[in-house]
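User:
I would dearly like some help making sense of a protein record. Take your time, and here it is.
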Amino acid sequence: MPNPKKPTEERILVCVSSNPSSARLVSAAHAMATRLHAPWSAVHVEPPKMAMLPDARLRAADNLRLAEELGAEAVTLAGRDIAERIADFARERDVTRLIVGKPTLPSWRSIFSGSPVDRLLRITRDVDVYVTSGDLNPMQPREEIHVARPGRIHLSDYGSGFVFLILATAISFLMYPYFHLSNIIMVYLLGVTLTATECGRGPAVLMSLLSVLTFDFFFVPPRFSLTVEEGQYVVTFVVMALVSLVISHLAAGMREQAAIARLQERQAAAMHGLSRQLASTRGVENILELAVRYISQIVDGAVAALLPDDGHKLKWAAGDLSSVIEKDITNEIHVARAAYDSGRMAGWGTPVSPTTGNLYVPLRAADTTAGILAVRPTHPERFLRPEQLDLLESLAKQVALALEVERLYQHPHPARPAQGF
């Protein structure tokens, strides 16, 4: 039976991860695509556990953004089986060349579990797989991107964890004369679960260890001492610590997944609401006022709009500019101008002036930049993440399209004269 016909056009796919070496892989794929005059894509598979690793998600988003800047189609997929998701995507896009990075798993771990690359080599057919570190990249290295890191756990969260520990200890004292020690252990496990769901992973891990010590000190004979009379309690402590850590990990993961779900719901509602209101709004000032008011609620901060005047200088157009640019106006306007000229975001979390407290988003539709949104979130460490940045960029595109429609409405092209026959 004849083999199925392979596509005649070369199509290249590069697999991107949060590893810093992915930038070299992207550059190598771009060089190959340029040499072969072939379309190419960059794909990142995000397993569920990555939702709990915000720093890794930021690095992966940065690598995808590099691929998009170089002309690739950037795609993020979700799934537990990384190799299977990549293989399915490659089949859908008729990929002929696949570029992946060398596995970084320790050799002892590879013996037992293998790696996604090993499995990818087994399940892909009619595809040339290139396993490389990307060191053959002929291009110049990319300037390092500075990103705003997500917010850290505050000391108040640890204080709340101690409150749960104290409450669990107080309840255990009330139960001690009437219940077996195994029941008291359940009270501490409940305290760890509440700490994980309300305070996060760090406080939960700390409370897990302190719960074991507190249970030993107050309730295990001899009481009010860390010594143990019976060796069986050592096993109890180990099991209690392991169970507490597992519970804290799972509960904290559920908390973070719920936060992501709420964020996605908020994003969908924001996109729908703003697009619906922009469709019925006329006038440049009204469009910008609506956008500023709506987006300031989404980012929980101050937003202002800047438009170019007849001399192509950026001037205030909507919003409270003084609440966004509080100091060093000259430098901030320079950063805004850089975003306007390049058509790319500038400011905090970007390669251009990452230390400034503001983010400047171009109002770009097609190949035209209509203006700039100056954004100053109240809590930038919570807002400046890949999901929120993508949302803000999408909202800016909606506003830019509304401004373009308004411009065409106010200045329609003159009708061409009818030609005679």
